[in-house]
Write a structure and sequence with these properties.
Blueprint (H helix, E strand, L loop, with lengths): L2 H13 L8 H21 L2 H17 L8 H22 L3 H17 L5 H17 L6 H24 L6 H23 L8 H9 L1 E2 L1 H6 L7 H16 L10 H26 L7 H6 L11 H21 L17 E2 L3 H15 L5 H22 L7 H9 L4 H29 L3 H17 L5 H18 L8 H21 L8 H24 L6 H26 L10 H23 L10 H22 L7 H14 L4 H20 L7 H11 L2
Parallel strand pairs: 1-2
Helix pairs in contact: 1-18, 2-3, 2-7, 2-19, 3-4, 3-6, 3-7, 4-5, 4-6, 4-7, 5-6, 5-16, 6-17, 8-9, 8-11, 8-12, 11-14, 11-24, 12-14, 16-17, 16-21, 17-18, 17-21, 18-20, 18-21, 19-20, 22-23, 22-24, 22-25, 23-24, 24-27, 25-26, 26-27
Length: 704
Amino acid sequence: MTWSRALKETARSGLSIERAKLTPLIAVRGSAGVALVIGLCLWLGDPRLAVSSAFGAFASGLVTFQRSMRPRPVLALAVAGPLAVATFLGYLAAPHLLVFVPLLAVSACLAGMAWAIGPVSGLVGTLTVAIMVVTVTLPTTVLGALAHAALIAFGGVVQAVLIVLFPVRPWGVQRDALADALAAEADYARRLRQNPVAPFDPAPLMDARLASTVTPRQARRRPVQLHGPRGLAEQLGPVLASLADPVVGAPAQGPERDRARDLLDAAATVLDAVAHAVRYARPVRLPPEAMATLEVPASGPMLRGAARRSAYRLISLLADAVELTDEPVQATRPTTGAERAHLLRPSVPRLVPVALRAVRREARWSSHIFRHALRVSAVCSAGYLLGTGLPFGHGYWVPLTSVMVMRPDFGQTYSRGVARFSGTLVGVAVAGALMALARPGAYVSAGAAVVCVFLMYLLMRTGVSVTSACVTAYVVFLLGIAGEGWAQTVQERSVLTLFGGLLAMLSYALFPAWETPKLRDRLAAWLAANGRYALAVYDRYARPAEGRPRQVREALLDARAARAAWEESEARAEKEPVRHRGLSRTSAHAAGSALATMGRVTMILEAHLPDKDAEPSPGAAAFAAELRPSLERAAHAVRERRAPDWSALRTVWERWDTESAGQGIALRASDLLLDALDDLAEALSRRPGGHGRAARDVRDDESP
């Protein structure tokens, strides 16, 4: 992608405004917390304290809107603490430029490294630096700085208390994640009805697993509806795939295929009903037609073989899903000492070692997180010096804009830069005009600031440009409470904002961390993870008595994580104005599709794992023995820009096919697995502009 096209795409993305589900009650609660701390400080008679406390309440309320599975009060308190400490240190260093700039550089670097922990931690770090550069402009003493820091922390406490006293849809994030996973399985069943080899996206199941990871306190209070359906959703995917697949499931045509389609449609209906019940905490309501379809017919089309076993398993899983979900929604199930079925989430203090390990892993030159931290540090320092040196005053707008714009990847940084500048223009123009014309007093400015923060909370998911306008107007009105002079014009603030955005964009162009060159490494990692998952499954066929279900489960989770890393890298690379470095966009899509098919086939094999008393499969053992070194060679070949060679593995399969006379689910599924691996090799052997095996087959058919 050229620079001109990349800039055009990122600008369009940044300026787009989406329709999103609004949460007015939560927005009212968050803005009420801001209003309470502002009103209290104004009543005490110190407008500057009102500004500090309002920033703390604003940041604490903002982070509770993020998609985190931790309790909302914990998030509010977690952001207020670091913000109070950083602001206090900033107040102490602000009068001394040679001290404050290094402090700002270190704070910005730590904020950049916080993205290694997760997006919510990255946002907390960003807000900490952004608010610090604003609040330290308010003059005060050392004791006053301590009071400012205490009130910033107090703002977080107020938000946490309001969340506890006025809960809005408790467990809503967890319910949505689990309902999305069940709805994704329903959508998968419908797609299989039309396309029996449709790909399966595990992302909703990964989100549901994160949502079901709870602290011991949460486990004691978790509603019954959130206990069991996720595990059933995990089991449903392989069963649906094995039923629909024309090789190991129902035949491609005929009455059995019609019966399979009816079962898939009924399963989708049931899963949608269960998802609706989980999302809205209601009993399950099932249409009688779907229930009739799921009954074993006395006559008519009947499934046979593996498809019949898949159908029975599907009916049993759906019945369990309905039974587990259709409980009194008020009831909870306390976790006893003997019951440890929940996934344990560490408390915030116990999270510190985990966070430090995550930061340490990213502290290397090749890490895009580490390079982002260096960029943020350099840009914030340079922006502060630039803003201070310009004759406009209020130079904090430059580093404020830069730190709010910058993200670890190119696409988000540039799209947010455009959105931030356009939104800031609107916010400064509207708020500045009102301040200049009406010259409101402290209480009127406070009321306008609360309105702006309410709009920001309400419209947060519509687009960065909209929220930037609301945040900018909020800052303008908030500083108006403290009597910040308005000798600075709208044009001057716009110029400073433009400087901040340009610094952020220029820093990525001069010191990039492109994702495109890493695509082959990500693809090789996904191939290796898929291979470990396949080997864990084949080991169960080769040695059923020694089977360890946990081994298969852990390999599956690793494969999902590798796939998510690949898809994230591919999405970032598509927006970057750099060459493909040996892996074109077409090849990347084809290779990803091949590995997704490999995962789907392994998932089908997992659905038919033999019992522990089953006979070992010598063919599966030989296939696994050759698959292991073949995968190692293939992963190395992918990294070295070569196409993998699967001829040795194909030879082993052909010997297995001859000895087994083409019988067995594992044998047939292994043929599909080899086809997926051949597609991977074909995708990686393409040259830019080439069309791969399909195009060559067409040309061969058309040749004389």
